Amino acid sequence: MNFTHLFQRYELLVAKADQAFHKMQKEYGAHIKCKLHCSDCCHAIFGLFLIEAAHLQQHFNQLARKERQAAVLRGEKSEKEYGELEKRLKTYGNDPQMASYSIGRERIRCPLLSDHQECTLYIHRPITCRVYGIPLVIQGKAHACGNAGFKDGESYPSFNLDEVQRELYLLSRELLVRAGRKDLERASLLITVSKAIKTPFKVLINEALG
Asked: pLDDT tens digit string along 23-32?
């Protein structure tokens, strides 16, 4: 299956995210604390839409075998931690506020974060990673990295991550169509980085469909 055209459209979203970050860096550089070996965002909880997972996997498979093996081993540890988190979330029942609070405080290492505190796939990192250090709109609310210098109560330009995620959802739907799948609403399901790098693409599509 050839998804080159979809990947090109995905990369336009990547470019949009990078442009937003660079613009904020130019105008509010003193507030942005991102730097080499800062790995706060590499321990945050987030998932990938299928289009991002497929794109990430394509480039991950081009890494040296030793790097891939190390990342997969780290991913196995991450998956166990995700499993433990899921068990804890079930104890909150129908309390979404407590669940959200728990997820926000959880620290699970991304398998792509090397022992040198560097991303082994930095050039092809997901969009969430690219914009983590600037003000974001997530589910209609403003958010910023806790290490950043953006102050509560003050107004700043923000990157609308909700809009980008809608585009990622639509690209994921189209990917499923081109793969011959019919259960298209499953395009909204998210995939962990650890699953994205270790699961063969055809299996990944099936897992995304449940």
From this structure: 999 999 999 9
CA dist list (Å): 183 to 20, 27, 50, 171, 207 = 34, 44, 13, 14, 12
Give the domain ranges of the chain.
4-208
| CA angle centred on 169, ends 71 and 189, rounded to 5° | 60
What is the pLDDT, as a whole number, of residue 203?
83
Report pTM.
0.89
Retrieve residue 93's tokens.
């029942």
CB atoms within 10 A of CB 138: 14
Burial degree of 45 (CB within 10 A; 0-12, 13-18, 19+): middle
Residue 171 · residue 49 · CB < 8 Å: yes
Q: Phi and psi for 108 in degrees, rounded to 5?
A: -125, 125
By DSSP bridging, strand 136-138 and strand 141-143 are antiparallel
Q: Which residues of 145-173 are buried (b: 16+ CB within 10 A; e: fewer)?
A: beebebeeeeeeebbebeebbebbbebbb
